[in-house]
Each structure stands twice: as structure tokens, then as C-alpha cells.
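To the team - zinc ion complex, inputs and output below.
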Amino acid sequence: MNAVASHQCSECTFVANKESIFVAREQRKKAARKPICIGKFTMPGWSGHSRFYLFKCYCDAIVVDYPHGYTSGGHIYFSCEECEASLVILDRDIYNKEGIAMPPGFFKTLWGILKLRFNLNRKIGINHN
Ligand SMILES: [Zn+2]
Ligand SMILES: [Zn+2]
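Output:
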């Protein structure tokens, strides 16, 4: 063992890795496009903790992840390991919880997340005009 002390506090749960985060089967079944917070966790080598969220990706994988920062537009995002998409977070509640200012002027959407890769593909797509 090396001497790197892991973060520990009364608010969070220590897990060895993301896969170790327990999500009850009922909770997995209820996972939707809108991410829900499943608690605060910390991992080996982290100096603090993060809120983790559960949601269903556009590829229908059930994802457990914490918000990563930042996209070029200043948004935070989740990653799906299944389809390797970065999912931009557009849910104002999450920004509020994380204490991050939400960038203005982004698309209005019913879904809290948007497939970043799809978005990028469109930007670089051939323009038929
Ligand atoms: Zn903590
Ligand atoms: Zn996915």
C-alpha cells in the first residue's frame, strides 16, 4: 500500500470503483433519460467526493456517472461507456446542486441530456444548400 490518503467524510461513501456503486434492481428499472442523484461517493486517489447520477442513455444502457467538466460550451457532461457518447447535461437542477452556473442560450429540450456526439456530427456534416 502507498501512503496516498483517500478522501473520507460523513457525507460520502467510499467505493473502490464506479462498478462497485450499488444500485438496487428496482432503481435500475426506473432509470430514465433524466438523471437522478443516487448519492455522493469517493474513490481511491480522489481529494473530494462527487454526486453520482443514474440515467438511461440513448443507447438504452443504464449509466452511473458523475458530472465531468467542461465542454467547449461550458457545460458539464456524463459519459456512457457503452456507446462512448458524451451526454451534455442540460438539467438546471444538476447545475444548482453542483454549484455551477449553467451556460445560457443552449437548446431548449424536454430531455435533460443531449447527445454531444450527434451534435458535433451535425456541425461538421455536409451542408446541402
Ligand atoms: Zn466526502
Ligand atoms: Zn450510451
